[in-house]
Amino acid sequence: MVIFAAATAGYVYLVSLIIDAATTLDGGDSLSQTKRYAAIILPVILGLTFAAGLGGYIQRILTNSIALNTVGKMQTQMLRAAHARDFADSQAEPTGELIAKFTNDVTVVSGGLVRVLGNLIKDVLTVIFTVGAMLYLNWQLSLFMVVFGFALWPIIEISKRLRGNAREVQEHIGHMTAELKESLGAAQLVKTYGLESREQARLDHSFSERIRLYLKLITQQARVDPILEVVGGLVIAAVVIFGVWQYGSGTATGGQIAGVLMGLLALAPRLRALGTLNNVVQESLSSVGRIFEVIDTQPTLEDAIIASDLSVSDGRVELRNVSFTYPDGTLALRGFNLIAEPGQTTALVGPSGGGKSTVMHLIPRLYDVTEGAVLIDGQDVKEVTQASLRRHIAVVSQDAVLFNDTIAANIALGDLDADRDAIILAAKAADAHDFIARLPDGYDTVLGEDGSGLSGGQKQRLSIARAILRDAPILLLDEATSALDTESEAKVQAALERLSEGRTTLVIAHRLETIRNADKICVVDSGRVVETGTDAELRGRAGIYAGLNQKI
Prior knowledge:
Blueprint: H1 2-23, H2 30-84, H3 87-92, H4 95-137, H5 139-142, H6 152-185, H7 187-192, H8 196-222, H9 224-249, H10 254-295, E1 317-325, E2 331-340, E3 345-349, H11 356-362, E4 371-376, E5 379-380, H12 386-391, E6 393-397, H13 407-411, H14 420-429, H15 433-437, H16 456-470, E7 474-478, H17 486-500, E8 504-508, E9 520-525, E10 528-533, H18 535-539, H19 544-551
Parallel strand pairs: 3-8, 3-9, 6-7, 7-8
Antiparallel strand pairs: 1-2, 1-4, 4-5, 9-10
């Protein structure tokens, strides 16, 4: 940048020398003098050009490298913070808005860094070097540069509005990304219900709002250039008028006047760039603020200062007088008591909204209880490390989560150190090996997004294979068969029974036939366990469970 700025200032001084040299040529030896000046000036011009080009080339590579590495670190920190934040925060913010921060906001910051690192420093250095050369040539003419100071006040006023406008744009892009993800992810619903026109109208409104907000931002940004153009024109006019007067009075040479004008012409785009750079800075600061909202988020569910690893001998799970209220104030559990014995299956049934899923969230400490305690083999889950707690728990939920990776890699998520033989054994135990073997690439078949191409039962059996590979003593089954057809349900149910052997199993089920053989059934209603017993015992009572059976 210094090389580039010095070369630009060199042009100003060189123009002055050339003009003055040209005006001193006399008729007799003008040709020889021209040759002599050409022999001196041409190498200088070529040298300045080469220096400016080389400096600009190296500067562009280095500034882009710094900017890309900086935003790369930002994305890494954002991802760590997003993974570390509380489960409640993850549920509260739409995924599309978070993705927009990883993509659009990071792109804005990257572009801003390139402009700031490259243009700001380079242009400021160019202004300093060029003004220095102008002052050296003719300080009286160069003093008219102070007129540019009058442009600062309106530019500062504009910048105050710019950041707010930029934040509006970035926030709307987040909303729009969330809406797009939601709409495109619901392709089946949109097509079968004929909702194409409705979705297009909804998204068209969002696109139109984006255009409106961008035009509002651009309107503010566009005010800077005219201000600088007018001020620049006034400065050049003043220099020309005063320069002609100085030349006429013999206090300035033509080369000095030409050099100062050359300096002004060289400075004009730099000063305009510095003015418009403020727009970029304000937009970037808005995006930086949104990025650091993610990075600076501190999880409230942290390990205790002195937290030990969970030691599991039997895997007995107890919820002792537990009450829990969600962040939005919804009371989910109150005075909830439950014991799940080792090697047994404990089923939770009851009306929707009774608190069953909340129990499944509290055991792996996705939330902290408001009152009471969750105990595993007598150890409070709040007093052990979260990593060791979750290492002893396997989860199979209604929605089988699969990544766009190979089948083997998806199963291996249960144990990242597992070898191929262990993965195959887990697949066989989950009754998944046969359909995997029929796929073109077997275990190396790459699944599409969310396991596209597989049936619901096949996805669920891969999820079970993952849980089998994890070999955890505590198993949580959250409506693992509720979305399956009868044939798939039978296969998945058989795999789940094999998986449950010898483990402490808690299962949520809406289909009562899937938990007939459970060792204990707990009926949950209004945040409490209101009935407990086996299927036969509860059928014999005139309670909620008996009523649920009558509805089947």
